[in-house]
Amino acid sequence: RADMDGLPLKEDSGVAQPSTVTQVDIDGIEKPVMHACGHDVHITSLVGAARQMAARKEDWSGTLVLVGQPAEERIGGARAMIQDGLYERFPKPDYAIAFHVASELETGTIEVPLEQVASSSDSVDIIVHGVGAHGAYPHMGIDPVLVASQIVVSLQSIVSRTIAPLEPGVITVGAIHGGFKHNIIGDKVEMQITVRSDDPDVREELLDGIDRVARGVAISMDVPEDLMPEVIRSETETTPPTINDPATAQRLRDAFTARISDNVLVDPPRGGMGAEDFAYFVTPDTGVKGVYFNVGGTPADELENASSHHSPFFRIWPEPSVELGTEAMVIGAMTLMPVKD
User: Fold this and answer.
1) pLDDT tens-digit profile of 208-241?
2) Residues 5, 12, 245, 302: which is the catalytic one?
3) Rounded to the nearest 5°, which phi and psi values hold at 175?
4) CB count in 10 Å sphere of residue 78
5) Which residue in 72, 122, 199, 276 is the catalytic one?
6) If one looks up domain 120-238 in CATH, what number appears?
7) pTM of the predicted model, to two decimals?
8) Location of each CATH 3.30.70.360 domain in the chain
9) Which CATH architecture has domain 2-118+241-336?
């Protein structure tokens, strides 16, 4: 499987041929777009793997399914494909593999976690209601900006004081919009939140905590019942954690070491709580054993200056990234496919 979508950013990576494409986004606004997360590497390597597997058809048997997935950046594409009957309309695989190019990893290296790969992710919107008034007469209204500000601060107490200290969790308010002018108290503030965790129980604690904090803050600030904040969990921008099948991951680790080099594998500590909707292809109820790995995208002498994913400055070195991504996908598939009699 390879994802293929980009992001609404104007490229400023310094490459010779930066993206100049624009596109009307889901919100109806035309925006610049670029491959700020390397999905162009993924889909190119999928094509390369398809060609290589076809050329080697005499060496393996079974059915190879190639999946080009949209909407990974909104963590909704894989779920939509499963709901659309991917595993009923097409052959259901025994195994599923995918990779991500990583700007923070050295080119020529591969990371294959044995279990935890990525966190769950949930998008939550909060609409904070108020009563408009003159900015010089705040007592005559209910200030949603003040209520929303207190909610932002109080949300951080959920992670620090609700879940166990050794359990990872993140609540980030990524966007907040409200108000019209310096001296006007508006009647609404809209907030957009991302929630991350590694454990299903912690995930529910965090989401329930957002409900509790939003309502509790509003009550403490004398917001009437009919103006309580609305907390809306997205039904599409949501994914469980991505967890590799340990035995299958070890098979691929052994194969990469044997067929590429003894030092191709790296095991860096997790640096954050990124999410990946590949999880939907390999949830326990599917019975599909999954392995998701990372391929290095930056030469060793450039690692100190490696740019972040989802940044207008994002860049990777395409040839070594695509070549190793293709090679790893082919080795992975050949390792898992039955040998032709």
Assistant:
1) 999 999 999 999 999 999 999 999 999 999 999 9
2) 5
3) -150, 145
4) 26
5) 72
6) 3.30.70.360
7) 0.92
8) 120-238
9) 3-Layer(aba) Sandwich (3.40)
